[in-house]
Design goal:
With 133 residues, this protein is mostly helical. Helix 3 packs antiparallel against helix 5, helix 5 crosses helix 6 and helix 5 runs parallel beside helix 7. It is globular and about 40 Å long.
């Protein structure tokens, strides 16, 4: 699929995906995460589109304690988050995830730390400001 078609496809699919962000079904969450990862990773889908249409609701609905305790979705959440950070920039996503290291839930903190480590390993810290680093 070329870049132009990928963006058009993503624009059609994203409202449906965003509606499914709030599902309580674990299997559906896993599917939604996979499709979000694929859409974000497509050539033609730019950082601006992802920032405006994905980031806020993605973190509000998926970056919750329950996801850290569900091992099936845990890995998919990390992988999708890394794909998003590859598109919009590591520093922006690290700013969102870093405060979660102070959460009282240990599995949630562990998931946050693992994600941070993978983002840094994948993208480096060149765009991260000194305060956050």
């Amino acid at each position: 699929m070329d870049a132009e078609h990928a963006l058009e496809y993503t624009k059609v699919v994203m409202p449906i995906l965003k509606r499914e962000f709030e599902t309580n079904e674990d299997e559906m969450k896993k599917i939604v995460l996979k499709v979000v990862k694929q859409c974000v990773g497509c050539n033609g889908v730019d950082a601006k589109f992802v920032r405006e249409n994905v980031v806020e609701e993605f973190f509000r609905n998926f970056w919750v304690r329950k996801m850290a305790s569900d091992k099936r979705n845990y890995r998919q959440l990390i992988d999708t988050t890394i794909e998003i950070s590859s598109k919009v920039g590591g520093a922006e996503i690290l700013e969102i995830i870093t405060p979660k290291l102070k959460d009282e839930n240990e599995p949630f903190r562990k998931m946050s730390m693992e994600t941070i480590e993978k983002i840094i390993a994948t993208l480096g810290v060149s765009d991260v400001d000194n305060r956050l680093e």
